[in-house]
Every structure is written in structure tokens, then in C-alpha cells.
Design brief:
heterodimer; A: alpha/beta; Rossmann fold; 3 domains; 17 strands; B: about 200 residues; alpha+beta; Glutaredoxin; 9 strands; globular
Chain lengths: ~550, ~200
């Protein structure tokens, strides 16, 4: 453990020599934000070695476990956990003069910032990082480790902290917040219309409320409101052509229309180019409606309400593993280019090595009913059948005999309880259902439906519309917590926190995120139709988190 | 939940805590509390469905805390403290049962808990638990650690010398050495005259 520095005047004297040596070292070295960023985010020193740190009681840590980002977050604007406040360590806050209000200094308001200490200098900041003593000499919180960082690396880290931007980010002007929504060419046109209807109306409503806030002439609580409120503008980025060109198209859109964040988007089987774009551009992207998301929990800038059909693949894989009577062969049917293809590949990977033979029957993108019948002809009673099909295909099953009692379908693709599954198939079929049950979600969904009704928004794709409304509300609520700190990384961090607070969670029983969690709803039901006709379904057991 | 004011054990612990608090500069509050164990089933990190009451009452002294694996500030520290406590106990560690229950059970699958346990070098005496959201909430409420949502959680360590005994509740960032002192004091108190006359 690093010994504590002496306090007060003695402490200043004790620091003088090391400070001089350190300043020389800084002058000699060329501080690079990249090295500082690596230390901040990954806990790696410029040498590539993991940084080492100890806490006051002697517990040691190193590398990623000791990285600043864990507590102070990627934005550098801090966080709070329980009753513990972790302050911003972006340079603007550390070096701000004592006793001033943030707005006087032109620094965005952050609720964890405290300017009740002397401004840090490079030397006192190095002392805080190495010895855990604050700018005024007081010991820092027990959570703050004491780092073993040499002068050169400290220079890199401090240069990085000083270079951290506190906004406003592109897309956040003095009066307008710009948002985009992304639609790929293979998106369902009905869902597209439903989603845009909701978003356009939401933005109109939002701007109606903003227009009522007048610029104050004197300082008052209205000043803060004026600093916070912005008109919202929506940019619809419609992609065209091949998926390989989408990344370039998106970059062009962003250059022409810089946006603060992307809210919602609709696509088909290949969301990867959009996901990568968000990560590469460090652009917050909130996706409530993607049926087959890309990426994983380690990514940062894309948040999905659910894993969609990929979650269904996990649910079905689990059932295949737990089947009472052993299943030797699983036949999957999907149309080329639809999201079911991705789900089928996932399910195949999940069942790899299980001894079950997986057979994929790929139908043409826009094929005939006869083709579906032919694909199912060889299915026997000992087989399991997994259908990754849309309503029109499920409807056409009426003319196809059921040859096995173990059938699974995708609720996400089939239309949940509205799936037009013929009566003859209902007894044999289980549906993966990655949302809450109709009777349980009604209260949470009704609020949005009333909002649509009052604003005369046609209900054409209920789940997409409800979840789009939810996403808009989440962004609005999150921004209200962010006050005037229009920093993209901070938006992601505040979305993580805001989502846990929400009582209205649309189609989902719960939505939660955290650092390292990018799919907000974690599970689903397996359901069965209870009647030969109609939309009544019953859960076959509890909510499952695979 | 019933909070009892100081017996001999608590008085000794409070004295200890004041000293240590001065060193660590963090407030650590201790109290002696009785809790009613809820009848819930949890899933251990090995995938087994288990009764919380049976896990708590396996005859050994028990240390209990609540964590979630994607928690980036508080839990890594409290888990590191238990790791160090376990290490300091040495061969004695097998005689205590360490239990960590997830407050984010949907995310914290048995596989994720196993990975987390490995990271903190959890020995065979240290088990992690998940389960349904309802089961986790019931456990959190029963031990008065539920704070609304996971990001509002606070560091709490609970310790009990034997089944039927009251719990020592430690709020705040306790150090491994303090925890070891608390543990030894608690065990010593089992046969103390003060306790016998209670």
C-alpha cells in the first residue's frame, strides 16, 4: 500500500520535489490521449502492463478491475450507486474554481459534481490518484483506489482527463436536439408507417411543450429550464441498396445531419451494419424494434429492448434440451433473408454437440405455399419441427398435415397471440413468446394505446408502436435527468439508470440495463393456444431466462 | 425484522467499529437483528434448486451479502472483501458458509455467477444464488436490503453464528480485517455469560 502523504503545509513542502521531477518528466514525454484512454478504460499502462492499485485497507486490484471507467464511467461524468456519489473527473470539473456555480462557469450541470474543494492542479490530482487525498488534503472515499502510476503514465492519464469533452455533442445545438431513426430497405412497410406515425407525433407534442418555455431575462429557476429545453428534430435515414453499402450511407447521413442519438430503427435479417455504425461513430442508438439484433453485451452504444428472435432461439433450444422423450432430429424451416435464418443458425449452434441432428429447410424469400408443404413432407412423428415463419406462411399451414406433436413457432415473427395458426396445428405447437402475457401487460400498454387514440394515430403494428412510444419516453425522461450535459456517452449511462426506474415498460415485464448489459428484457414465456380459434394463449410454465 | 439494542457482543463490536472507522474514514454501522427467513427457492450457481432456509441453516456460521455481477463500483469491493476474508481464514474457511444472492437474477444466470465466483476465487464454502425475480426480492426484503432497484443498493454484510441466533448486520464498507474480528467476536459470544443470561 502506498503510504499517505503528510497533510497541510508539511504536505506541500513534501510534494515540492516530486512535483518538480514530475513536471520535468511531463515536459519530456509527449502525452497522448490514446495512452491515457487505454489506462482510463482498460486499466493498462503505456507499457501494456496492467495498472496496480490498492485500497486503504490493503485490498489490491489490477488491470480492468482497477480501471477508472468502472466508477467514473466512460463519460467521465461520474455516477451514483446507493448513497455513494462518484464525482465527475472530466478536467473541466476537477480544475474548476471553488465556490462557483457550474452555470456561471459554463460547465454542464451534473448532479454528482461538487465544487466545494480547491481546484485540482496536476500535482494534487496526481496525489489524489496515487495517495487518495483530495485537492484540499482530505482523504477520498474508501472506494477510491490508490494507484501505482509513474510520472509518464500519470501525464498521459491527466492529459486524457483534461481532453474529455463535456459537450455539447454534435446534434445538440443551443436550441435543437437532433435525432435520427434508421430504416433499412427490407423493413416491413406497415411497421415503418406505424413507427414513424408515433415518432412524428411524439416530436410534435414534445416541441409544443418546449415552445411554452420562454427565455428568462434574469437568473431564476427558469434559467436552468432554458438551458435544458431544446426543440426535438427527427431525421429519417432510409437506407437503400445492398447491406454492404449501408455503413457508408449512414456515415454520409451523419455528416450531413449530425444527430445526438438514434431513436428506434427498423430492419430485417441484417442489423450488423447499423450496429457497427453506432459503435464506430460512438453514437447512442436505442433500438426498441429490432427483431434480430447484432452485437453483444460488451458493446456500448446500442441498446435493444430484447434479443428478439435470437432470444427465442435460446428459449426453444432449452426446450429441445429438456424434452422428456429424446429428440433425434430437429427440422427448422425459414425463408431466405428473413430474421428466422439468423435465429435458426443460432439455435443450430446452441444445440451443437447435443447429438440432435439439425436439418434446415430454406424456403425462397417469396416462395409459394406448395414449397412450404414440400419442405414439411419428410417430417416424421419422431422429429421436432421449428418454424421461423411469418403470419402468411403460418396461415397456409391449413393445407399441410401435422406430422409431429413437437412443433415450435416464433412469436416474434408469427405475430404473438395474433398468429394465424390453423386449428389443426394448435395442439402440437408451442410458441416462443419473448414478451409479457397479454393479460399481464395490458395496464402497461394501455397508456400508450390511449395516447395513440387521442392523437388519432392508426394502430397498424401494435407492439412496434407501443415500444417506439416507450423508447421516445425513455429518451425524454433520461434527458431531463441529464439537464444540459449533452454528452453522448453520458446519455448511454443515464439510459441504463433511467430504465430501471420505469413503471411503464410496454410489452415487457421488466427492462433493466447496467454497464455490460445491452439487452433490456432478458427472458420470455413458452405459450400454447388454448382454443382452436382466437388469440387466447396460456403460458406453459414460468417466465424463462435462458 | 427485529432490531435489538446492544448486548455484550454488539457493545464490543461497536467499540471495534469506531476504531476501525477512524482508520478507514468510512462509517460502518453495526446492529444486531433477527430476521425471518422467507420460504423461497433459489438456484445455486451449480444449477441446483435449493431452499434458502436450508442453505442458511446448514449448521455452519453464515456470512450473507447481496450482489449483481455487472455492478461496477460497490460489489467488486464487497466481493473482494469476502475473498480476502476467506483467504485470511485459511483452513478454517471450510467451517463457515459464505452466501451471495444476486439482486439482478435475470441477468445473473448460474453460468455468469460461476464466472463471477471464479474471478473472486470463491472456495467451496462460498456459494452464489440466483432465481426468479420474485424469489430474489423476497430474500432482499426479508433481510432489509431492498432499495427499489439494483443501482440503489448499499453495501450490507450479514453474519450469523449459528441457526436460530440473531444476525449481526454490518452496513458500509467493512475491511477484511474488521470482518474477521466481527466473525471471531460473534463466535466467541456464542458461549459468553452475557448471551447465556439473555
Amino acid at each position: 500500500m502506498i503510504p499517505n502523504e503528510p497533510r497541510g503545509a508539511g504536505r506541500a513542502a513534501a510534494l515540492a520535489l516530486p512535483l518538480l521531477m514530475w513536471a520535468c518528466a511531463l515536459g519530456a514525454a509527449h502525452a497522448s490521449p490514446a495512452a491515457g484512454e487505454t489506462l482510463y478504460r482498460r486499466g493498462l499502462l503505456p507499457s501494456g502492463e496492467p495498472v496496480r492499485a490498492v485500497r486503504e485497507a490493503g485490498a489490491s486490484m489490477q488491470g480492468l478491475d482497477a480501471a477508472c471507467v468502472n466508477c467514473h464511467r466512460r463519460s467521465g461524468l461520474g455516477s451514483s450507486e446507493g448513497r455513494i456519489t462518484i464525482p465527475p473527473i472530466s478536467g473541466r470539473y476537477l480544475f474548476a474554481p471553488q465556490g462557483k456555480r457550474l452555470e456561471e462557469l459554463g460547465i454542464p450541470f451534473v448532479d454528482t459534481a461538487r465544487l466545494n474543494h480547491e481546484p485540482y492542479t496536476d500535482a494534487t490530482l496526481a496525489g489524489a490518484i496515487r495517495e487518495g487525498s483530495g485537492a484540499s488534503g482530505r482523504p477520498l472515499n474508501y472506494l477510491m483506489p490508490r494507484y501505482q502510476i509513474d510520472d509518464a503514465a500519470m501525464g498521459e492519464l491527466i492529459a486524457y482527463l483534461k481532453g474529455m469533452t463535456v459537450g455539447p455533442a454534435p446534434g445538440a445545438s443551443a436550441s435543437v436536439l437532433h435525432f435520427a431513426t434508421i430504416i433499412t430497405p427490407d423493413a416491413d412497410p406497415v411497421k415503418r408507417r406505424g413507427m414513424l406515425d408515433v415518432m412524428n407525433k411524439y416530436f410534435i407534442d414534445k416541441n409544443g411543450a418546449v415552445a411554452r418555455t420562454k427565455a428568462p431575462t434574469l437568473y431564476s429557476s427558469h434559467t436552468m429550464m432554458f438551458r435544458v429545453e431544446r426543440r426535438w428534430q427527427l431525421h429519417v435515414w432510409e437506407l437503400t441498396g445492398a447491406a454492404a453499402t449501408w455503413g457508408a450511407q449512414l456515415r454520409q447521413h451523419l455528416a450531413a445531419e449530425p444527430v445526438f442519438a438514434v431513436v428506434s430503427g427498423l430492419g430485417g435479417s441484417n442489423w450488423e451494419p447499423v450496429h457497427r455504425f453506432c459503435e464506430q461513430q460512438s453514437l447512442p442508438c436505442l433500438f426498441p424494434n429490432v427483431e434480430a439484433p447484432a452485437g453483444n453485451d460488451d458493446d456500448f452504444y446500442s441498446v435493444y429492448f430484447s434479443r428478439g428472435v435470437l432470444l427465442e432461439a435460446q428459449l426453444i433450444a432449452r426446450q429441445l434440451a429438456e424434452a422428456g422423450e429424446p429428440i433425434r432430429r430437429v427440422v427448422q424451416v425459414f425463408r431466405a433473408g428473413d430474421v428466422g435464418e439468423k435465429a435458426a443458425r443460432d439455435l443450430q449452434a446452441l444445440r451443437g454437440g447435443s447429438g440432435q441432428q439439425i436439418v434446415n429447410r430454406v424456403l425462397k424469400a417469396h416462395g409459394s405455399v406448395q414449397e412450404l408443404g414440400a419442405a414439411l413432407r419428410e417430417v416424421g412423428s419422431a422429429d421436432a419441427l421449428v418454424l421461423w415463419l411469418r403470419p402468411e406462411d403460418l396461415d397456409s399451414l391449413e393445407r399441410v398435415p401435422v406430422r409431429t406433436s413437437r412443433v415450435w413457432i416464433s412469436g416474434e415473427m408469427g405475430g404473438l397471440e395474433r398468429a394465424p395458426l390453423p386449428a389443426s396445428w394448435r395442439a402440437a405447437t408451442r410458441m416462443a413468446y419473448p414478451v409479457d402475457l397479454p393479460g399481464q401487460r395490458v395496464v402497461r400498454v394501455d397508456y400508450a394505446l390511449s395516447w395513440f387514440r387521442i392523437r388519432k394515430i392508426p394502430l397498424v403494428a401494435q407492439q412496434v408502436q407501443v415500444d417506439t412510444y416507450l423508447a421516445c419516453g425513455l429518451v425524454s425522461e433520461t434527458l431531463s435527468h441529464m439537464v444540459d450535459a449533452f454528452v453522448r456517452d453520458y446519455l448511454m449511462e443515464r439510459v441504463e439508470m433511467a430504465l430501471d426506474h420505469r413503471a411503464l415498460t410496454g410489452y415487457y415485464p421488466r427492462l433493466t440495463l447496467a454497464p455490460g448489459q445491452r439487452f433490456a428484457s432478458k427472458g420470455g414465456y413458452m405459450v400454447r393456444f388454448t382454443d382452436p380459434q382466437g388469440t387466447k394463449v396460456a403460458a406453459l410454465g414460468d417466465w424463462i431466462t435462458p | 425484522m427485529k432490531v435489538r439494542t446492544a448486548g455484550a457482543v454488539t457493545a464490543a463490536l461497536v467499540c471495534a467499529s469506531v476504531l476501525v472507522t477512524a482508520v478507514a474514514a468510512v462509517p460502518v454501522a453495526r446492529s444486531t437483528v433477527t430476521y425471518e427467513t422467507p420460504a423461497v427457492t433459489l438456484i445455486r450457481e451449480d444449477g441446483k434448486r435449493v431452499s434458502l432456509a436450508r442453505e442458511l441453516d446448514d449448521g455452519r456460521p453464515v456470512l450473507l451479502n447481496f450482489i449483481f455481477t455487472t455492478c461496477s463500483s460497490i460489489c467488486p469491493l464487497t466481493s473482494r472483501t469476502l475473498e480476502e476474508f476467506q483467504r485470511k481464514l485459511g483452513s478454517e474457511a471450510a467451517r463457515v458458509h459464505l452466501m451471495s444472492i444476486s439482486i439482478d437474477p435475470e441477468q445473473d444466470t448460474p453460468a455468469r455467477l460461476t464466472e463471477y465466483a471464479r474471478k473472486f476465487h470463491a472456495g467451496p464454502e462460498w456459494q452464489y444464488y440466483t432465481g426468479t425475480v420474485a424469489a430474489s426480492l423476497a430474500a432482499q426484503r426479508a433481510f432489509d436490503v431492498y432499495r427499489g432497484e439494483k443501482m440503489s443498493h448499499t453495501p450490507v454484510t450479514l453474519m450469523r453464528a449459528a441457526p436460530g441466533e440473531p444476525w449481526l448486520r454490518i452496513e458500509g464498507f467493512v475491511t477484511p480485517d474488521e470482518l474477521l474480528d466481527d466473525y471471531r467476536n460473534l463466535l466467541a459470544s456464542l458461549g459468553s455469560p452475557a448471551r447465556a443470561s439473555r
